[in-house]
Amino acid sequence: MKTVLVMLFVAMMALSAAAANGEKNFGGVGIDGVAAPDGQITVRQLVAGGPAHVAGIKVGDVITHIDGKPTRGSDFRQMVHKRLRGRAGTPVVLKVRREGVEKPLTFTMQRQQLVVTTPKEK
């Protein structure tokens, strides 16, 4: 089941990336995440140089809040489309739990237009 969710997320990201590459106002933070059963998002990958990467988010961080709203119990797809993504240049605040760090960490960043490319076949 996890494999299906991961494949679905990758497909959603690819479709969204295609739309993002052609839409000037689209913005994101550059996180590829995996939904936990409770709705929280574990960061799996970061877009190098993207807002989340520059802000200091790390692979393995668990996103617990987006703009002050908890991710626990939320719909993963809606969080990605309505809360993480938005108009380029608009702010977003993420609260994360990081292994080995006692208190939650808060990161404020600006969404930016991300151009996602796929590796070329050899």
Q: How many strands in all? A: 8
What is the CA–CA distance across the termini?
A: 31 Å
Overall spatial form:
globular
Rg to the nearest angstrom? 14 Å
Instruction: Please outline the major beta sheet.
Output: 6 strands, antiparallel
- Low-pLDDT residue intervals, each spanning 5 or more residues: 1-22
Task: Count up the helices.
Answer: 3
Please tell me the overall pLDDT.
81
State the helical fraction.
25-40%
Core attributes:
29% helix; disordered N terminus; PDZ domain-containing protein; single chain; two-stranded antiparallel sheet; PDZ_6; PDZ_sf; PDZ; alpha+beta; 122 residues; signal
What's the helix and strand layout?
Blueprint: H1 2-22, E1 26-27, E2 31-35, E3 41-46, H2 51-55, E4 62-66, E5 69-70, H3 76-84, E6 86-87, E7 91-97, E8 105-110
Antiparallel strand pairs: 1-6, 2-3, 3-4, 4-5, 4-7, 7-8
Keywords: Signal
InterPro entries: PDZ, PDZ_6, PDZ_sf
Pfam families: PDZ_6 (PF17820)
Provide an overview of this structure:
InterPro entries: PDZ, PDZ_6, PDZ_sf. It holds the Pfam family PDZ_6. Residues 1-19 form the signal peptide. This protein is of the alpha+beta class and 122 residues long. 29% of the residues lie in helices and 29% in strands. It is built from 3 helices and 8 strands. It has helices at 2-22, 51-55, 76-84; strands at residues 26-27, 31-35, 41-46, 62-66, 69-70, 86-87, 91-97, 105-110. Strands 2, 3, 4, 5, 7 and 8 form a 6-stranded antiparallel β-sheet that branches. Strands 1-6 form a two-stranded antiparallel sheet. Strand 4 (62-66) and strand 5 form a beta hairpin.
